[in-house]
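Could you join me in thinking about how sequence relates to backbone shape in a protein? We need material for that, and I hope you will provide a protein of your own picking. Label the sequence line and the structure token line clearly, so we can match residues to local backbone shapes. Would you write everything just below, so we can both look at the same thing?
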Amino acid sequence: MIGLPAYLRPNQRALDFTPITNREWRLTAKEYIAALMAPRHDAVRDLAHAERTVQTLTTCHGKLSELIRWFKWLMDQGITDLGEVTSYHCTAYVDFRGERIGDDGEVVADSPSTRAVAMGTVIGLAQYRELFTGLRFRDDLHPFNGASAAAGSGRTAELAGANKVQPLPSEVQQPLLAAVLYVIQTLAPHILREAEAKRVRQAADRSIAATTHPGLGAFLRNLERRIESEEPLELMTQDSVKAARVRRLREEHDPLAAVSLSALARECGIRQFRGAWLPELRPHLERAHALVGACAPYGRNAAEVERADGQGHVTWTQPLFSLDLKFLVGFLATACGLALAALVGMRHCELGELVVGCRQPPQEIAPGLFRYRLAGKLIKGQPLGGVRDEWVVTREVYEAIEVAEQLLGPDAAPGTSLFHPVFCDTTYQNFRTWVNGPAGQRLGLTPIPEGAVTPRALRRTLAVEIAYRPGGLLAAKLQLKHLSVATTEGYAARPGGAQAKFLAEINELEEERNIGILTDVYRDYQSGIMPSGPGARDLISLFTSVDGRLHEPTHHPCHRPVWEESRETAQVFIGVSAAGRRPSGPGWKSA
């Protein structure tokens, strides 16, 4: 299918209805999924309870998977016609899906989320029944007595009105962000240089066609060059050494047991080193090995960098084998993706739409002051494939994209996806393991504690940071104001775009925070602790007025204008406080 979002996994790019063995039920499933993807179709838009927005392919894939389970369960119950389904079957299926039974036959777990998914599928078939041309539910069947999936499953109570995705704890966020910025800003130039050297070397190796002995002189000249320049011979990996011993190509106590003779042969223009050549070359090889030693091929003579903790300087890496460098390149790519999710608030699907060439030319809006923009796509809530959109970002994010482009190599064509696949839990855990391991600790990186890190959690964390404006690493290292300004500029440039939606989340959080601050100060006031500092007199006057009105004998409608005036006064005051004019003293609780 043309125009699919880049973030979709291969198994999500096709809708497979064949597991539904009943042909008539299969037709019903196809009509239902098609209606979800085309809500503006003439046959769909007149349905009273139909979805009004286009459902993404991911959503439809999930609903189809649940439909397959539902239909299979019905067949196991002996149901062959959807008209035979009753409220009992609907409730029993949801119980079957939501409960996990232990070995003793008792319920050991119950999942409101799974119940909600199951209920949503059953309810959906009832809401679209007028559309179906084949089998469908009876007209008098109203699953779950008309309850919604969220309310009927207990999911609403589970969330208790809160956003299920919580921001990252500061003990996870701070070392994570510090490691991400250190890798991009300090290590990236060195990693990119070694990655390019590896590409050049591999291209040269592929071009070698000779298989005959190049002559003793070619090997001797190579060894003398190494001795003069003090360049070590190349080591084999531990796995290669073990394999050579198993094949009896090397003896365990041979001083050349771990030396890569094939690498030496390729430098001399021959594809493979032959064992028959070794006796003649052994004295010269052992002499060179004794003088210059041997090590892994990449990261030799590594430059020194400042440690992340400021405790001196170290070489940016120990010598690396090809696979080690491949992993390091992957960690750099993961760091770039994490930087975007943490500092821009991009969704998982939006990260997947960033491609080579997405960086727009910087726009100088004042002498020395630049605006940086990225071209991408808005996916959520949009037609299949999304719509073009732009993000206003900070310089750090712009540089992270530049690094991500360079990682793909000089031959990467414009339009090539930068983050495919988009970083997931596995790539993040690999990055965290490296940070917490010997390599990361040698560089002075702070270990990252355990905790789920996803683009959704990072987006939520950034929204909380901007709305609450706390201190901490994010504000100190990146000037939180710049992140806030970039978000606001992106909103102003495209009022209906992705950053507009993100700014709406921030505004909701800011209002929630402000109400909490005002409530805490009012409770202190009731306890006799008066606020002090700029604005304190106005605040005390407001609280006194509120107390007086609370003790009035009636809340008659005629008093509503007074209450509205009080509410607006409180909002104006708290808005000024949030901007930096908060009262201080024992009656004020700082963020």
Summary: DSSP finds 23 helices and nine strands in the chain. The first helix runs from residue 23 to 37. The longest strand covers residues 369-378. The mean pLDDT is 82.
